[in-house]
Amino acid sequence: MADKTLVIFEKPIYLCMEPVDPHLFATAFGVVETPVQVNVLLRDSAVTYAVERQDLKGAKILGVDVQEFDTNPARVVKFMLEHGGQVYVVREDAEARGIAPTDLVSGVQLISREETVGLIENHDAVMVW
Amino acid sequence: MSRYLIVTSRDLHEYASSSYILELAGSLKNRGHEVTLYLVENGVLAARKGAQLAARLNELSRAGVTVLAEDVSAKARGIEQLAEGVRLSNMDELADLVVDGCDKVIWY
Amino acid sequence: MAQPNGAKTVAIVLATGSYEREAPTTVLRLAEKLLQRGVNVNVWAFEEAVTLTNKDQIDHSEPGALQGILGEKHSHVSKYIDMLLRAGLHGAKLDWVSCILCVQERGVEKHQMNAVTIGTLGDLWKFIRAADRVITIPSYR
Fold first, then answer.
1. What pLDDT, in 10s, does the model give residues B29-84?
2. Which residue among A9, A27, B14, C126 has its CA within the 20 to 30 Å range from the CA of A123?
3. Domain with residues B3-107, CATH architecture
4. Distance between CA atoms of A5 and C61, rounded to whole angstroms?
5. Complex ipTM value
6. Bridge partners of B4?
7. How far C21 CA lies from chain B's nearest CA (Å)?
């Protein structure tokens, strides 16, 4: 039984005609609405999801906003944190992308690449999307 | 001790993530777990004899990771010789591994 | 049949459509083998994978100029899914759920095959919770 699941994000998706990456909100649903304990690991370029100041409102097509609701991945990350999900960010991947710890949403945990192995060991199931 | 089945269907040459996947396989093995690295779809491209990552796969194999490449994927891509340390497998074996050859599946 | 200590239920989460990706082919090939081993398979399809079970897929003829290298036509993926769903009626079962959010925004809600259940994110997490093994195939290639 997969009571404790680690969801790993690697490749970010923005402005895809969903309010946020559908895998991200599917994960948020798991955090808030189900008995499964869901934790999140942001690695590779998906570390960008935890950057505090994201704004998706600039995209328009013929003057019409693509992003109809003012949300962004960081807002979803905060939501998951508020509802008891742990959110981990790989330090080396953030550094490689010029993302400083102070750029990140408060409450995420910076861990090393090596430490991700322990996370994988401690969860019943691992999902990579 | 747990048994890990790490499946890669993405080409390890193409993705920067590949170094992480290979490190993960090695780290889990070093920590005393049983690890199978299963290459399927474009994942088999790294297992062609002479491929740039072939040596890395052989290294993992010598460290005790079981490295397998799926036959239909290999044949589709014209791979006739596998790198040292990589064994040819098939979908039946992948199913057996999923059912009772592992405790967790991680598919990259 | 499944070994006593082996997996009895596998959840497969698929986000990729056919025709430009291989993941659905692999999933169907693997699902067949799992069913043969007496393992119940729960597939939760979302994103482009909800187009896999569109019952209105039809064979098309290949362009005339290319038929020499492509053949005359090719089967559509729902044919194989239908075969597996029928196989999954007897012995180990196959349940296939398409995400309601995804079928609606793609306009394929009314096009889903009869044997497919249109379900929710709640169904996804119930599949995950109940599974002995969870296979999630990333949609990136």
1. 999 999 999 999 999 999 999 999 999 999 999 999 999 999 999 999 899 999 99
2. B14
3. 3-Layer(aba) Sandwich (3.40)
4. 45
5. 0.95
6. B35, B104
7. 10
